[in-house]
Design brief:
single chain
């Protein structure tokens, strides 16, 4: 492998950005400029790695070695680039969106917010470029710690409760399952370095089958950021955070770190051949199928838009693990490309949820009747991203579902085909009513009364929701779209989801390189 300092620079870019944000916190424009420059710098460095990785060169940078086979090392390969490119690009848009959201609601502690946002990207990019399980674990924990203040941002009882649940689930599972599994893997194999291909893995053939199965289960459940049931409760609970944090959690960093870590260990610690020999693939696929279906059914019952989107994320993440678990090349490619496809579509949905709240102070779907006619750009983008989540052409999610369906056929897993079809119908069942309500529904009685009085006061619902935020976000209710700083990013991510549906080759080339 070729030593390349750009890997270190990529990891340091958001860390330096966090320092600059802290130093310039009293000057908001300078602070947000620093966030933007850090995001652009990170994306530029990551983009510069693309030609080398596409050419088949694996890049590495070792900071230090503790023991033979135990080092702090970074590596860029096809799998890491899928995550790093999507996360670094979306951070640029998230910076703009966050500025519009936080200023629009006059949120407090914006310097802390931007600092922790950058630190979360520091951890996420570190996970993407980790060359071994030790490095991955350290950056995984960094993501958990740095996003805790974001979840607790409002500093009220609800925020602290959501943050406590968040940090308890994620750190307990990591320390209780991943850490001991990592120690045992090192004892068995003498290394924690990821294998260079997805077939061999690093565990020796002499290891007892029961031990391997136990280690595998510990890794699947230990990376609880992947949202697999029953260790998913932290994710809906974290919805008390500001919407830009929800977008970060669900699309850019946290859950993607969880699912990325899971598939990295499945493919590069255990390997396809070992999983096939021990018949670990299909049982894993059926195990996560329960999450796919159950989370979708729960989403149907949620009126709060962010909560419905949260359960959608729980369901959608398991598509990625499902594809890898099927062990057929096409299914693996479909699962991996969903890392990027889901990121662009889900961040659009959360961006839209935030724009709706800033413009109208509405959180519940039942209150959104007719809003699509007042906010056509926002709800148009929401409709596009919803089609992607459903898996309808010509949006990016269609590519993921198509590859998963073909991969399930290749694997002879008819039951998984049924799961994919059923989940698609459930996706439509909880997304289509939102779009219908927005464009064809009628405004609520309270809103009609408010309008009849000349719009002089907030609706009762908006006033109550403002109180729920503990006094933070004192924006006024108004007609029309949210600020352009919010609408432009959500329209861009929606447009990119369509582009990825027509031209999926960029991320598909990386996915194909992984399975070779």
């Amino acid at each position: 492998m070729q030593t390349d300092i750009r890997l270190l620079l990529a990891v340091l870019a958001p860390l330096v950005g966090a320092g600059l944000v802290m130093a310039t916190g009293k000057r908001p424009n300078v602070r947000e400029t620093c966030s933007f420059l850090a995001a652009v710098t990170l994306f530029g460095i990551v983009a510069s790695l693309v030609p080398d990785v596409q050419a088949g060169r694996a890049l590495r940078y070792t900071l230090f070695e503790l023991l033979p086979g135990l080092s702090f090392t970074l590596r860029a390969d096809a799998l890491s680039m899928m995550f790093a490119v999507a996360a670094s690009f979306l951070w640029i848009l998230a910076v703009f969106y966050s500025a519009g959201y936080m200023r629009g609601l006059h949120e407090h502690a914006q310097t802390r917010f931007n600092t922790c946002f950058a630190l979360a990207l520091f951890g996420a990019i570190g996970c993407a470029f980790s060359d071994n399980l030790l490095t991955l674990y350290l950056f995984y924990e960094i993501v958990s710690v740095t996003t805790y203040p974001l979840v607790a941002h409002h500093q009220d009882e609800e925020g602290y409760e959501g943050a406590r649940k968040y940090i308890t689930y994620l750190t307990t599972t990591a320390k209780g399952l991943i850490l001991p599994a990592m120690v045992l893997i090192y004892v068995l194999s003498g290394t924690l370095d990821f294998a260079t291909n997805v077939h061999t893995g690093i565990l020796p053939a002499t290891a007892h089958n029961a031990v391997i199965v136990g280690l595998y289960a510990a890794c699947i459940l230990g990376f609880a950021k992947n949202g697999v049931m029953p260790l998913h409760h932290w994710l809906p609970g974290a919805m008390v955070a500001p919407t830009p944090v929800s977008a970060l959690l669900h699309a850019v960093a946290v859950v993607k770190v969880g699912v990325f870590s899971t598939v990295r260990v499945m493919l590069h610690v255990f390997g396809v051949d070992l999983m096939a020999r021990l018949n670990l693939g299909l049982p894993t696929a059926y195990f996560v199928s329960f999450t796919i279906l159950a989370a979708s059914i729960i989403a149907l019952s949620k009126d709060n838009l962010k909560t419905r989107l949260a359960y959608s994320t729980v369901s959608q993440l398991s598509y990625i693990i499902l594809g890898v678990a099927l062990l057929s090349p096409t299914a693996i490619e479909g699962g991996l490309v969903h890392i990027a496809n889901h990121a662009f579509s889900k961040i659009t949905l959360f961006f839209c949820a935030g724009a709706i709240y800033v413009a109208t102070h509405k959180k519940n779907i039942s209150e959104m009747g007719g809003l699509g006619r007042k906010m056509p750009w926002t709800f148009g983008a929401f409709a596009v991203a919803s089609l992607s989540m459903i898996g309808a052409p010509p949006v990016a999610g269609f590519i993921s579902k198509l590859y998963l369906l073909v991969g399930a056929l290749d694997a002879g897993a008819i039951g998984i085909l049924v799961v994919l079809v059923a989940s698609t119908l459930l996706n439509a069942a909880y997304f289509v009513p939102v779009i219908y309500q927005a464009f064809f529904g009628q405004p609520s009685v309270a809103e009609r009364v408010s309008v009849s009085h000349g719009g002089e006061s907030l609706t009762a619902s908006a006033t109550e929701q403002h109180h729920d935020h503990g006094g933070h976000g004192a924006a006024e209710h108004h007609e029309g779209e949210a600020p352009l700083a919010m609408v432009i990013p959500l329209c861009l991510t929606a447009a990119i989801s369509v582009v990825l549906g027509f031209y999926p080759d960029f991320f598909m080339r990386f996915a194909e390189a992984v399975v070779k």
